[in-house]
Request: fold
Amino acid sequence: MGKKINDNITWVGKTDWNIKKFHGNEYSTFKGTTYNSYLVRDEKTALIDTVWRPYADEFIENLKQEIDLKDIDYIIANHAEVDHSGSLPRLMELIPDKPIYCTQGGIQSLKGHYHKDWNFLPVETGQKLSLGKKDLIFIEAMMLHWPDSMFCYLTGDNVLFSNDAFGQHYATEQLYNDLVDQCELYVEAIKYYANILTPFSRLVIQKIDELKSLDVPVDMICPSHGVIWRDDPMQIVNKYMDWANDYQEDRVLILYDTMWGGTALLADALKEGIQDKAEVKIMRVSTADKSDMITEVFRSKIVLFGSPTVNAGILSLMAAILEQVKGMKFKDKKAASFGCFGWSGESIEVMNNLIKEAGLELINNGYSCLWEPDGDILKRAKDFAGGLIK
Ligand code: FEO
Reply:
């Protein structure tokens, strides 16, 4: 069933408690997620976004409890990714002539996904759609996080429908930010920013500056995932500004993998060299969650990557996380490499090259160890790590 937000707006989305992997296998959603869809009623009625395809029938049935579908006048597709557009084909079978407002990129993407020639109406920043007493004002948000992304702002109620921006993959039956555990909420919000928005941080800053320059009141921010920000909604906007400005804390992250334990011993020695100078965390890439690792890279000022040499290269999951780090386009992060070897020791050079390709600043040539590290080598590893912290 829908949930009433105010006299005009009803949440008609889906809470998905069971999803644990999102974007294929790229993003872990341990806390589930929600697909938020909103029905906005005035003299005319607009439906903002839909829900993911597997829930299309449930979505339509719930929507019918709220409104006779033929009374929906406009459909707003803020973003074409299937978690928001996936129920459109089912909906459009029932109301095929209703107009769909989206960006030019949205038309391209929706046509590409569904191969239907629906009644698309392209919109641009600043364009208004009158609902009667209130207007929806469209704001293109290219690359936040897809080329087609768009926000819309409802005058009168002062609500920003921000689609993916300001969201969290966080299932809850509570609709609002002030009703949930704040620690849990922010763990999910920063993970979401780190994994989804980091590559677009410069555009996040520009978009927030643009929103602020509109000088319109914002009483609520309704994203397409997670809770609605109604208590001090600008708190998440301000957080985004912090996160978008090359965010880092006084933390060091050690990411490593190991075959027979030698590189694990080095990781532990490095940690000992750091722990009195900065907060330090160790994660083994073959057992840690990759979205959590990206979040920890996001929070850290220095990342140490460790792998033994294998087949003149590095362990494959270390290569995988370095590839993911590269995609995030992190700025202002330092890094170094370490690892054990037996017959040949290429891993350091391979990791150093990948670190540079990933855009991290390589602090030094790394720390390597022939065979199993013993007391003296571990002592030197500890000193090596201590020397990295200014
Ligand atoms: Fe929640 Fe970009 O889709």
